[in-house]
Amino acid sequence: MPEKGFIHIYYGDGKGKTTAALGLAVRAAGCGKKVVIAQFLKGWNCGEHNTLMELPNIKMLCAKPASNKFVNEMNDEERLLTEASQNECLNEALELVEKGDCDVLILDEIIDTLEMGVVDVKLFEKAVYEKANKLELVLTGHNPDLQLLKQADYVTEMVKHKHPYDAGINARKGIEF
Q1: Strand pairing partners for 111?
Q2: Cβ distance 90 to 66 under 8 Å?
């Protein structure tokens, strides 16, 4: 019987969603699996990029927003450009899956793109509901809908109890990004 791939969701307001997903990526790559990591809505170069891009078996894709603003603060043109970038990244990731160049697909912050309306819903649904049987799929974000939670095999909620950001301390390079 062929190996079945599962759907993982890391979600919530707590720190650690991306960290958990990238830990799985390193484990999978270390076991010879081909990993594609597509990061959405992150317009900065995160520290993990420098290391992960050096590892064989890992391909990083990044869908940058059109500006440094939060999506809800963008004007119409910025939103359209942001949506185009997110869709282009998702398309590229799905093409790698279709070509057989991906065993593990991580869609970091994809849940937020869906909630904010800056990714094509049909494209997202194709990624999740029509995934290849052997593909391991990891989704991260804040508020997945009930249907998505039911579709997943693993669901982990990250709950924030305390965070320095609440005291006005910005994200620190090497720790939060």
Answers
A1: none
A2: no
Which residues, listed in sequence order, are joined to residue 106 by a DSSP beta bridge? 37, 138
Instruction: Give percent helix, percent strand, percent coil of the chain, each to the nearest 5.
Output: 40, 20, 40
pTM of the model: 0.92
Pairing outcome for strands 154-158 and 58-63? unpaired
pLDDT in tens, 117-158: 999 999 999 999 999 999 999 999 999 999 999 999 999 999
Q: Which two tokens stand for residue 28?
A: 């999978």
Eight-class DSSP state of 11: E
HSE, CB side, 13 Å, CA atoms: give it for residue 41: 23
The Cα 111–Cα 119 span in angstroms is 10
CB distance 119 to 151 below 8 Å: no
d(CA 169, CA 66): 25
